[in-house]
Amino acid sequence: MLAGPEVPLSVLGLLVLAAVTAGFIDSVVGGGGLVQLPALLVALPGVSPVEILATNKLASAMGVTVSSATYYRRVRPDPRVFGPMMLMAFAGAAGGALVAFWIPRSAFDPIVLVVLVLVGAWVLLKPSVGVETELRLEGRRHTTAAMLVGLVIGFYDGVLGPGTGSFLVVALVSLGYSFLDASANARLANWATNVAALVVFVPQGAVLWGVGLLMGLGNVLGAYVGARLAVSRGAGFVRAFFVAVVAAFVVRIGGDVLGVWG
């Protein structure tokens, strides 16, 4: 059904606003799903978890297409690395999307919280990390490591997704990329994971097309602005924004796990 459930215009407006915000965050450091997915869960309480995940993927895929194109034109990441990484991310996400039909969302919040705390602490305690690209591995070893990153994080993205972009960024920074170069490669891998998940979800009829397309337009706007800002401001801006976003997500997810937000 193209329209999906009947949603009041005021609720649709808030969902689009959440999508604009998510698109901006996603294009700079990733993690926009941690804004967009909860917005869908709150706004559409009668919709199944798989439909929420699928609709979120549609909106995210539209936004990440724009940010990926912007990064590719302006940063020029190496296709010998991001190509194989995208293929493995696609495979991992497709497998994860199949698993998503069986795993409850609540099982992931504590895991995501622990990983975000560790990631944020690592970036804060190592201020020099991600300033410039100085690859720790070369040639085939580097490509293999990037492919493994794509496969593992792609699987997670297919199963649930929130925070995927941030996890991709920090994994690539740990391989020696600057935050800007890591964001460029992460957007390309994230595009592959979103498309892979939709390949599984669309034939199942899980996408709410009306809601997803409207949110996708909002995501596109946020992604375009965010990607251009990140490229113009450089790695220092991306790093600072990354720390701020991770801190905000730790507070929000921590509150969910502890029951602070009810």
Q: Care to give the gist of this entry?
A:
The protein has 262 residues and is mainly α. The chain contains ten helices and no strands.
Annotate the secondary structure layout.
Layout: H1 9-28, H2 33-43, H3 49-75, H4 79-99, H5 109-125, H6 139-159, H7 164-174, H8 179-201, H9 209-233, H10 235-258
Helix pairs in contact: 1-2, 1-3, 1-9, 2-3, 3-8, 3-9, 4-6, 4-8, 5-10, 6-7, 6-8, 7-8, 8-10
Family: Belongs to the 4-toluene sulfonate uptake permease (TSUP) (TC 2.A.102) family.
Transmembrane segments: 33-54, 81-101, 107-125, 146-175, 195-225, 237-255
Membrane topology: Multi-pass membrane protein
Morphology call: globular
Order of helices and strands: HHHHHHHHHH
Count of discrete alpha- or pi-helical segments spanning 4 or more residues: 10
Summed up, the domain count is: 1
Strand % is under 5%
Largest sheet: none
Helix content: over 70%
Describe the oligomeric state of these chains in a short phrase.
single chain
Describe the 3D structure.
With 262 residues, this protein is an all-alpha fold. It has one domain (9-258). The protein contains ten helices and no strands. The radius of gyration is 17 Å and the shape is globular. It is a multi-pass membrane protein. The chain crosses the membrane at residues 33-54, 81-101, 107-125, 146-175, 195-225, 237-255. Belongs to the 4-toluene sulfonate uptake permease (TSUP) (TC 2.A.102) family.
Short key terms for the protein model shown above:
globular; 262 residues; 10 helices; mainly alpha
